[in-house]
Amino acid sequence: MAARERILDAAARIMREQGIVKATTKEIARAAGCSEGLLYKNFAGKHELFVAVLEERLPRPFAGIAPGDGDVVENLERATTGLIEFFAEGFPIAAALFGDRELLATWRTQSDARGGGPDAPQRLLIEYLRAEQADGRIRADADPEAISALLVGAALHEAFLASFAGRRIGDPTSLARRWVSGALH
């Protein structure tokens, strides 16, 4: 495995388990089995590494889901399950953003440049729902913005509660199924 990948994996694990404060470049390099020099050869610093972890090591809720493919309800359930997992893994890491203004500014700049950011999951879900609506695969009177807000908001809230309580989310697929059913009916 390439050094950059080992470093990202180690950083993600440490940030998830111990938080960003304890995720020093020295600790990350040790966990990745490399020198700090090699870490800095691949990343300008801890902030760049942190952003790379957020963008490259969190689950991708919409992977393999495209308008017109498969069953809409199953796609929404899969996307919502992915959102639950994305927020559950990302929340403990991303929460640190708000305690470090420089890190938050770095993340904003890089996210904006890539079309990402905290509103990306909702934007992507709205786009998907609108496309399915245009193809007649969901009701014409459905509200893509409301459905997206409900599903994304529920996933984020559940991840927040689990993170706060120090617990894992029981059955994300079952939650997603219930939420999608409620949002579509």
What does this structure look like?
The N and C termini lie far apart (47 Å). By secondary structure, the chain is mostly helical. The mean pLDDT is 91. It contains nine helices and no strands. The longest helix has 23 residues, at 72-94. α4 crosses α6 (101-114), α7 (120-134) packs antiparallel against α8 and α8 packs antiparallel against α9. The chain folds into two domains: 1-57, Homeodomain-like (Arc Repressor Mutant, subunit A, Orthogonal Bundle); 61-99 and 113-185, Tetracycline Repressor, domain 2 (Orthogonal Bundle), CATH 1.10.357.
Report the C-alpha radius of gyration, rounded: 18 Å
- From the spread of the alpha carbons, the general shape counts as elongated
- What does the main sheet amount to? none
**Assembly state (oligomeric):** single chain
| Helix-strand category | mainly alpha
The number of strands is 0
Assigned CATH architecture of the largest domain: Orthogonal Bundle
